[in-house]
Design a protein that fits this description.
This protein is of the alpha/beta class. A hairpin with a 7-residue loop joins strand 14 and strand 15. The protein is globular. It binds pyridoxal-5'-phosphate. The site of pyridoxal-5'-phosphate has 13 residues, from helix 5.
Length: 388
């Protein structure tokens, strides 16, 4: 039996989401210790969670029991941190699970979503799993969202849309739009005026604020109380330093939260995730201090990059910097290096144990994304770049 032929076509055809590298695999490849690596390819927090998180874990030994399915203590801690009543909050195994749940909850095969590439790949992946139409409204050259195009599309949705899959087809009115603020991979933010224009449209706005604590903008989590078409997604993987624990949450209109409880896996996040999240959130001063350190280091790093002259950082309000490489490299034989520029930089840094992301497709051709680490780690990056 050809079991593969039974797999749903949309899953068989899926382009995989490419996550950051496994440090264990990379240390094996480079023949070094994991501790020698500088991991700057997945926007993780280089400091780890506040000590209170580890303490909370150490104080509990009841791992033979399931976590609280109502997530009451966890949602209390989050509600206090983010300033919304706990009825609006549902937690899951990372922001990724929340995004997946939102897609599964709203989308039937044949529905449509709007995405603003280049952006976080999980929105497109969720659309593909649900077998829905993916309407791409590319960001402008400065990575801003083309709100005029969204308004034109939604208000005149009978427009026939041409895309690869359907040719000229009448695509149903999009139900959801996903918008990362700040955006990954460039770190740009959407203005309040643009967000208000999007919220005025008859579409559910999924606002992914994974990096909001590194931005000058406030979180819009409490806007969910005002706008019944807004969902805000947060993660504890970034500033809060718990990427390995898989904790994230959504702030939902109450009616939506009620439906979500019925469909979500009962026991995500894990018990260690609950405990460490509650511990970390009990120490907002340490979290704020860590955020300030990462932002200060981001600004110092960008200034140093600008001094190099050939690598141009884009303005970022997140914990990473997208950089354009304005230099043609020459190979050891004196001939132009045939590899894409981003790959040259990524491989040169990897050889020194520094892991970053490179991109090779427009509009990110010749770009790399570097997460912000501790100052000594960023000095290692700068030293490696100076050698190129
Ligand atoms: C924009 C954005 N949203 C959500 C996530 C998911 O975070 P997690 O699933 O670790 O909570 C990430 C992770 O990199 C991200 O960049």
């Amino acid at each position: 039996m050809d079991i593969e032929s039974l797999i749903a076509p949309n899953i068989r055809e899926m382009k995989p989401y490419v996550p950051g590298t496994s440090v264990v695999a990379m240390a094996q490849k480079l023949g070094c210790a994991v501790s020698d690596l500088v991991k700057l390819d997945a926007n993780e927090n280089p400091y780890g969670p506040p000590p209170a998180a580890l303490q909370a874990l150490a104080n509990n030994t009841a791992f033979n029991y399931y976590p609280d399915p109502d997530q009451n203590a966890l949602r209390e801690a989050i509600g206090k941190y983010v300033g919304v009543p706990i009825g609006h909050i549902v937690c899951g195994a990372g922001g990724d699970e929340i995004l997946d749940l939102i897609a599964r909850m709203f989308l039937c095969p044949g529905d449509a979503i709007i995405d603003f590439p280049p952006t976080f790949g999980m929105y497109a992946a969720a659309a593909q799993v649900q077998n829905v139409h993916y309407i791409s409204i590319p960001r402008r050259a400065d990575f801003s969202v083309n709100v005029d195009a969204v308004e034109a599309l939604i208000t005149n949705y009978k427009l026939r849309i041409t895309n690869e899959k359907d040719g000229q087809a009448l695509i149903p009115k999009p139900k959801l739009l996903f918008i990362a603020n700040p955006n990954n991979p460039d770190g740009s933010v959407v203005s309040e005026a643009d967000l208000l224009r999007l919220l005025a449209l008859p579409v559910v706005v999924v606002l992914d604020e994974a990096y909001i604590q590194f931005s000058t903008q406030p979180s819009r989590a409490d806007w969910v109380l005002k706008y019944d078409n807004l969902i805000v997604v947060h993660t504890l993987s970034k500033l809060i330093g718990l990427a390995g624990l898989r904790v994230g949450y959504g702030v939902f209109p109450l009616t939506v939260a009620a439906h979500l409880w019925r469909m979500k896996q009962v026991f995500t996040p894990s018990l260690p995730g609950h405990l460490m999240a509650i511990g970390a959130l009990s120490d907002p001063a340490t979290l704020d201090e860590m955020g300030r350190k990462i932002v200060a280091e981001r600004n110092r790093f960008c200034e140093s990059l600008s001094e190099l002259g050939w690598i141009e950082p884009y303005h970022s309000e997140a914990s990473f910097v997208l950089c354009k490489i304005n230099k043609a490299f020459v190979g050891p034989d004196g001939q132009p290096d045939p590899r894409p520029r981003g790959l040259v930089v990524q491989q040169a840094l990897e050889a020194q144990g520094i892991l970053i992301r490179f991109f090779n497709r427009d509009p990110l051709r010749d770009c790399v994304r570097i997460s912000i680490g501790q100052p000594a780690q960023m000095d290692r990056v700068l030293a490696a770049l100076r050698m190129l």
